[in-house]
């Protein structure tokens, strides 16, 4: 399970890399919003480990202005991630980071649905590896408003559900569900959202 979580982290990191490159390319070519309002990229994904076998997929994404007349807000980012493994596991995710109202508002929507197959070693009268499958759902929503030059405040909501079934019912079915509303305070002194050269980003939840 932890290896699949690591996969999500790696994909998220790759998304930031693509976003940075897209923003860098736009700045470097000197294109105006009228010339190119949407930057579209697709990142292929290929990996392997002994737990999940071969992993392959793609991450299509686009960067755009919600309001083309808004020259202050950074571009928003939307996309999806699809990853499948040869042991039958899969991961599907949707992500959105919105910037609007002349940089005064930020919002994010992130959702992941996955069916993950793995195994663990179980000791006992007949020790051995036991296979299990976990259906995972993760949803995160948030909105923040600028309250000073470098400070944002807002609310967020997170829902997580894990349902695990074990091979031959060696253990009872396990379901874990958590959800909650939280207050967010963000300090952002970066000189750019996707390709900063200086500044800091800190969050308090």
TrEMBL record:
Alphabetical UniProt keywords: Signal
Domain of life: Bacteria
Signal peptide: 1-21
Name of the protein: DUF3575 domain-containing protein
Source organism (scientific name): Draconibacterium aestuarii
Taxonomic lineage of the native organism: Bacteria, Pseudomonadati, Bacteroidota, Bacteroidia, Marinilabiliales
């Amino acid at each position: 399970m932890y290896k699949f979580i690591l996969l999500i982290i790696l994909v998220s990191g790759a998304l930031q890399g693509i976003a940075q490159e897209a923003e860098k390319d736009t700045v470097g070519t000197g294109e105006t919003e009228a010339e190119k309002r949407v930057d579209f990229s697709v990142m292929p994904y290929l990996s392997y480990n002994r737990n999940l076998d071969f992993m392959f997929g793609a991450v299509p994404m686009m960067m755009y202005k919600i309001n083309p007349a808004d020259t202050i807000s950074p571009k928003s980012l939307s996309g999806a991630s699809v990853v499948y493994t040869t042991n039958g596991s899969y991961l599907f995710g949707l992500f959105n980071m919105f910037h609007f109202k002349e940089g005064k508002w930020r919002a994010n929507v992130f959702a992941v649905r996955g069916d993950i197959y793995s195994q663990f070693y179980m000791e006992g009268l007949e020790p051995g590896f036991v296979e299990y499958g976990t259906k995972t759902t993760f949803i995160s929503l948030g909105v923040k408003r600028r309250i000073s030059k470098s400070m944002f405040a807002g609310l967020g909501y997170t829902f997580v559900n894990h349902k695990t079934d074990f091979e031959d019912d060696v253990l009872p079915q396990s379901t874990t569900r958590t959800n909650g509303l939280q207050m967010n305070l963000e300090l952002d002194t970066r000189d750019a959202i996707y390709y900063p050269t200086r500044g800091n980003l800190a969050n308090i939840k």
